[in-house]
Amino acid sequence: MDGSTRLIESGEDVLLYMNERKSWIVKVEPEKKFHSHKGIVDLGELVGKPYGYEVKTTLGATLKAMPADYLDHLERIARRTQVIYPKDMAYIALMGNVRSGSIVLECGTGSGALTSYLAGLVRPNGKVITYEIREEFQANARKNLERLGLMDSIEMKLKDITGGIDEKSLDAVVLDMATPWLVIGTVYDALRTGGRVVSFSPTINQIEKTVDEMQKTGFVSIKTVELIMRTYKVKVNETRPDMIMVGHTGYIVSARKC
Ligand SMILES: C[S@@+](CC[C@H](N)C(=O)[O-])C[C@H]1O[C@@H](n2cnc3c(N)ncnc32)[C@H](O)[C@@H]1O
Questions:
Q1: Which of 50, 57, 43 lies closest to 11 in space, CA to CA?
Q2: Best substitution site from 107, 150, 199 to test ligand 1's pocket, by max atoms within 8 Å of Cβ?
Q3: 54-89: per-residue pLDDT in tens?
Q4: Boundaries of domain holding 35
């Protein structure tokens, strides 16, 4: 059965879509009501209906029920820290050669945005071990990752990575932390030969120190990039780049243990 005919089951996360600016993820259950400024929806009405079903709120707004997917959840992740942008996530994962079955160490967990993307890639037999130094950030990230149903592929550790890495023979290490240069030697020891490290930093000063350490440690294939993404307004005879863009996120260094 395809997405347009699959029936909505009790307990599923459903996206109630009104327009590009307004949509909500709700867990559908009988007897449950969803309240918003657009009125109330009886969620029980959705159980057993096909995806694509249109439900009316008590104030007359029409909401279309779609299966909530990973991107819907990622956009709504509860942020207690800066999170990695989607454009950077995809490149970080590629340069870390993160694939199904990979064993990956990540530091820090932050809000768990990057953790969630990596966990989706390593499933079903791989694992993401993620270190975070601050308990309140870890607790928030845990809630985000539980909501996404990814905890089977994640091990969370409350741990300062500068105190050492417990794991050995890792396929990849991914760093998004303020002082990555302090752990490059430790990361080298924890990787398997041929394993990869990828580090994200918002400033070029951090990158200089990190690359310097990588060179001294013996990493090879050291590459630094910045990804700039421009979005477009597309309309016949009026297509042009959007006026406002995200000007800067950060730089990404990748390298390999030889
Ligand atoms: C920018 S956030 C990471 C955001 C994350 N990549 C995401 O997408 O949600 C950086 C995190 O690294 C953590 N951190 C910094 N230094 C650390 C260390 N030495 N050991 C473990 N975690 C550390 C911080 O507490 C913070 O939560």
A1: 43
A2: 107
A3: 999 999 999 999 999 999 999 999 999 999 999 999
A4: 13-68
